[in-house]
Design goal:
The chain is mostly helical. The chain is 68% helix and 2% strand. It contains 51 helices and 6 strands. The protein has a two-stranded antiparallel ribbon. β1 and β2 form a beta hairpin. The longest helix is centred in the N-terminal third of the chain and has 28 residues.
Length: 1057
């Protein structure tokens, strides 16, 4: 069978889709043949089979195991193969032998085999494979072959990472950690094996963190107290170890240097990552050594800087390399880990106490403290521009811009140093950090022959720190500003583009935290930045000038910036005329974003004559070539929204002029977009049209509907993509709300606007090609139709519409789509609850009444509703349905409270599938009471009085979650290095609406909802308190009250009484 399987495996790699599909299906069909897994194993071990086929055989074996080995596997096919235990035993033995062979030289194949072993072990260990772990540990303890040891480590890594349950891991943890120590401390182990052993140890700590939450916590702590001291000694010894010496000529062969340092660098990186895990899992193990580790890391960074200079600053050494086991082994990766850990350890109380003592000894010159200046020296060295980046940035200024403004995922030593200075030092030392950098530049870089990369690095760090100071609303003293201006200003005329551009950026950040007395300097610097933006020969300087101008516009008083409005807009126009958006700037999204921001800020300085300014022309020019990038597109929409709001605030006449200026551009965009289906220009045009209607005057200007409704109708009749369907639906809804008479007068091809709107709604809720994501705004359109047209205009269509919405609601799945549909019924229920209940009760949907379908969906999803107004309307609508006291409502049974089953075990995904959550069943009236009590609690108890305070709390929460804000300025409070309490239940009830709204919701969009900041709603609170008082006085409420949970009863007692 081997030959047949081998041919199928090779067929899966040919460049023909049909051949691949047939081969894969044939392999699947072979699963039921008992000899199939052995054929794969024979292919893997056959020396005459090519490497690619052997790897394909291992991959096929993993798929076979996933599908057939155990019904508990997520990938199980549901038709397990009846493989005898003897055959399974043979497979286990053979695949383990492949992993741990002393002669293996194929790293990828050994990793694939380890992956298979791990998967089998997750089902069979220890019951059916008790010898697995002792066998692997014996190989580590004996360490007779590097290949066998590495193979065992690879298997153990897969096992510990994903193959063992918490209970299984706890049973082997002690022996495993001791064996890993044997590998790392044994002088016979090579560095790669040591690094891999540390990686396995890291996985052990990840698991220990989970076990610490179980009944084994005390035993784990006792084990760590005993096991960690030798490990800590080993960690510090590794960090002290110097890199092997190389000759100066060796640097000419960068690969030779990398290979010579590969092992020790990989071990050092793993040690630092282990220290991070130790700190996270069991802080006492590291607390006693924290200052010593701080000194070692700092010294190591100092010692490594010459090598880093040789490899990356003077040469274009290759960095961020990773081997087949996922081990990083290049110097730049080590620098990043070391700087990040240094940043973290600077927050330790012992470190800050010692450094604070040294700082205080400097008196008034704290910024000149020796340790701080030495630290900045190290940060400067690693913040220099590497040669590879220098060459790349000169070719593509957009990449330089994204790196400099920290809008990139490319994390480098330069970025890591910036994070340390801006986050750790600024958080702790505040403006002393700024003074220290200014002092460093003036003293350490005073010589005229200082390399430009060193001075540029200081400008880079100072720019980042000044931006952070602005975020913290820090204003520097005039003396500091003057000194910095004297140091930086000369370099705006430097011949080096990076130094010149960096000077412009740093000046703009400096003057953003300057006192008002520097207004003239700001005005002069703004002019220089504009000149750099449009006139300099270097694209790098152009980009820096562009960013500098945007920063000036954000902070300068209008008295300075407003006179420059026309010049700024003209500068953007000149830049666009000099650069081809479709060629030169095709992929320059960061530059396009900056251009949009500068236009936005310039336009918003004064919108009184915006229809006569070319700014909107430039805006639409950028829009036509930037729609395909969603981040740039979002910025365009945000900019347009702000402009429309600003103009609309000036009155209807100003808004009419804006429409006359923008509607032709929008219709042109719709036309161009329709000719290129792959373009996102139509999506953007729909978004802009929606904003223009949403914030427009009421009624809308004459001709508004006639101009925009035809392209929007075409979209909603033909398009399927949610990116264009959603904003087009919203646009039509806004147009119907604000231009009702004009809308009703409009027709197309003999069909009235009402007919067309109903056709659109019907398509959005029933067409199979429209998914729920695309149709999630249909409820707003349907609500607008019902509210603005009513039964007088809709006639019999109204009943058909409500029936269709109820039917679709029964199969709806996405919460946004469900809420959208339900808000139609909420709107109707607020005005005529009895009519809604009667109507729904008479409709049959697959044997159930529409009332049951709608209420069940409504009550089970209300807790997830988003939107401040929507949540309020929902509460009012439900209160009116409840107040009907209709027996048909009370007869409906819905999902109640979660039935909590606490068996003391962590609920994994597999256990959750085997034992899904169950809920009580309660009458709809009780459910309504529970929902309204929850909303009353949220509306009344929220800590936030407005969106601004909610957003501030959200940002603070996000900062804390990043782990970078755990120490206060004095270094005492919130110290992340202290031994945190591990007893008690610290978990959050994520099912709680209050937790959901006030914690999870903090990262949202400001809607005051489950997906945005929840703020105190006095209006809803007042309504619900009055409503509960009214209901509480009615007969029978006491019986319902008794069915509520104690915490729900308490809310009513506390708030209503």
């Amino acid at each position: 069978m081997e030959q047949q399987v081998l041919e199928l495996l090779r067929a899966t790699t040919v460049p023909d889709t049909e051949t691949i599909k047939r081969a894969e299906q044939s392999l699947l069909d072979s699963y039921r043949q008992p000899e199939f897994p052995f054929a794969l194993l024979n292919i893997v071990t056959h020396s005459n089979v090519d490497t690619g086929s052997r790897k394909a055989a291992l991959t096929a074996l993993r798929k076979y195991v996933d599908a057939t080995w155990s019904p508990s596997f997520e990938e199980a096919s549901g038709q397990p193969v009846d493989l005898p235990e003897e055959a399974r035993k043979q497979i286990r033995s053979q695949i383990l032998t492949i992993c741990t062979s002393p002669d293996s030289s194929d790293d990828t194949g050994q990793n694939l085999a380890a992956n298979v072993v791990s998967k089998i072990a997750s089902a069979d260990f220890p019951d059916n494979w008790p010898e697995l772990f002792p066998h692997l540990v014996s190989i580590l303890n004996n360490n007779t072959s590097d290949s066998a040891t590495l193979g065992s480590l690879r298997v153990l890594y897969e096992l510990v990472d994903s193959g063992l349950s918490d209970e299984q891991f706890f049973g082997v943890a002690s022996d495993l950690v001791n064996s890993l120590k044997q590998v790392t401390t044994n002088g016979n182990s090579n560095a790669v094996n040591q690094a891999m052993a540390l990686r396995v140890l890291g996985c052990c700590f990840d698991n220990l963190e989970q076990v610490l939450a179980t009944e084994h916590a005390r035993a784990v702590r006792a084990f760590l107290d005993e096991a960690m001291p030798p490990w800590m000694s080993f960690f510090m010894a590794v960090l002290r170890q110097a890199l092997p010496e190389v000759n100066q000529t060796d640097f000419a062969n960068a690969n030779g240097v990398v290979n010579k340092w590969k092992g020790i660098i990989a071990v050092k990186i793993q040690v630092i990552q282990m220290l991070v895990k130790v700190k996270k899992v069991y802080t006492p193990s590291i607390t006693l050594h924290v200052f010593e580790i701080f000194q070692i890391i700092w010294q190591d960074l100092t010692n490594l800087s010459p090598a880093y200079t040789q490899l990356f600053i003077d040469r274009d050494g290759e960095g961020k390399l990773v081997d087949s086991d996922g081990l990083s082994y290049t110097l730049d990766a080590l620098i990043i880990e070391a700087v990040d850990f240094l940043s973290s350890i600077l927050k330790a109380k012992a470190v800050r106490s010692e450094l604070t003592k040294q700082t205080q000894q400097s008196g008034a010159e704290q910024h000149a403290t020796s340790w701080l200046q030495q630290l900045l020296q190290v940060m400067m060295l690693y913040s220099r521009i590497p040669r590879e980046e220098e060459e790349m940035w000169q070719l593509d200024a957009n990449i330089y811009l994204s790196e400099t403004t920290s809008q990139t995922a490319n994390y480098t030593p330069r970025t890591a140093c910036s994070e340390l200075v801006t986050q750790t030092l600024m958080e702790w030392l505040n403006k002393t950090t700024v003074h220290a950098l200014i002092y460093f530049n003036a003293n350490s870089l005073a010589a005229s022959n200082v390399a430009w990369k060193e001075r540029e690095a200081v400008f880079y760090l100072l720019n980042q720190v000044l931006k952070e100071a602005r975020q913290l609303e820090i204003t520097l003293e005039a003396e500091s500003i003057t000194h910095a201006l004297q140091q930086i200003s000369p370099y705006v005329n430097d011949t080096n583009p990076f130094l010149k551009g960096g000077a412009h950026l740093t000046l703009s950040s400096l003057l953003s935290v300057a006192p008002e007395e520097f207004a003239d300097a700001s005005k002069q610097s703004l002019g220089l930045a504009l000149k750099a933006f449009t006139e300099d020969e270097s694209a790098v300087v152009n980009a820096c000038g562009l960013i500098a101008v945007t920063q000036y516009l954000e902070v300068l008083p209008q008295s300075i910036s407003l006179p420059e409005q026309a010049n700024i807009v003209a500068a953007v126009g000149n830049y666009l005329n000099q650069h081809d958006l479709q060629d030169e700037l095709e992929d320059s999204d960061d530059i396009k974003s900056a251009l949009i921001q500068i236009l936005r800020d310039a336009m918003l300085l004064d919108t009184s004559n915006i229809e006569r300014s070319p700014a909107l022309d430039y805006f639409f020019n950028l829009a036509s070539d930037s729609a395909d990038n969603f981040m740039v597109s979002d910025l365009l929409v945000e900019t347009f929204e702000l402009v429309v709001q600003s103009v609309a605030d000036r009155g209807a006449d100003a808004y009419i002029k804006l429409c006359e200026k923008t509607i032709p551009s929008l219709t042109g965009a719709f036309h161009v977009g329709s000719m290129n289906p792959e373009s996102r220009l139509t999506d953007l045009a729909a978004e802009l049209a929606s904003k223009l209607a949403e914030f427009g005057s009421d009624p809308l200007p004459a001709g508004f509907i006639r101009a925009l409704m035809p392209p929007l109708r075409s979209i909603l009749i033909q398009a399927t993509d949610g990116g264009v369907v959603r904003p087009a639906t919203t646009a039509v809804s806004h147009m119907l709300n604000k231009g009702t008479m004009q809308f009703l007068e409009w027709s197309h091809d003999g069909k009235s606007s009402v007919e067309i709107s109903l056709t659109i709604v019907d398509r959005l809720i029933s067409a199979p090609e429209i998914d729920e994501t695309a149709a999630e705004e249909v409820g707003h359109l349907a609500t607008s139709l019902v509210e603005k047209c009513g039964s007088e205009v809709l006639g019999t269509y109204l009943a058909d519409l409500i029936r269709a919405l109820a039917v679709r609601l029964g199969t709806a799945e996405r919460i946004q789509f469900i809420q959208s549909l339900l808000m139609v019924f909420a709107s109707l229920a607020i005005k005529a609850p009895n009519d809604v209940v009667n109507f729904l009760a008479d409709i049959n949907i697959n044997g159930a009444s529409a009332l049951q379908v709608v209420l069940t969906k409504w009550l089970e999803n209300s807790v997830h509703f988003a939107g401040f107004d929507e949540i309020r309307q929902n509460a009012i609508a439900l209160s009116k349905i409840y107040a009907l006291n209709d027996p048909r409502v009370n007869a409906i049974s819905v999902k109640g409270d979660l039935v909590v089953v606490d068996d003391g075990r962590i609920k994994t995904r597999s256990r959750a599938r085997q034992n899904p959550d169950t809920y009580t069943q309660i009458p709809a009236t009780i459910k309504i009471l529970k929902i309204l009590i929850d909303e009353l609690k949220n509306a009344a108890y929220s800590s936030f009085t407005d969106f601004t305070s909610a957003r501030a709390a959200a940002e603070a929460l996000e900062d804390d979650e990043d782990g970078d804000s755990l120490a206060s300025n004095d270094g005492d409070a919130n110290d992340e290095w202290e031994d945190l309490a591990t007893t008690g239940d610290g978990s959050l009830d994520l099912g709680s609406a209050k937790v959901r709204d006030e914690l999870m919701g903090l990262v949202g969009d400001g809607s005051g909802s489950a997906f945005g900041e929840r703020i105190r709603d006095d209006q809803t609170t007042e309504y619900l308190i009055g409503w509960f008082k009214e209901q509480g006085s009615k007969e029978g409420f006491g019986e319902l009250f008794a069915q509520l949970k104690p915490d729900e009863q308490k809310v009513l007692h506390d708030l209503v009484k």
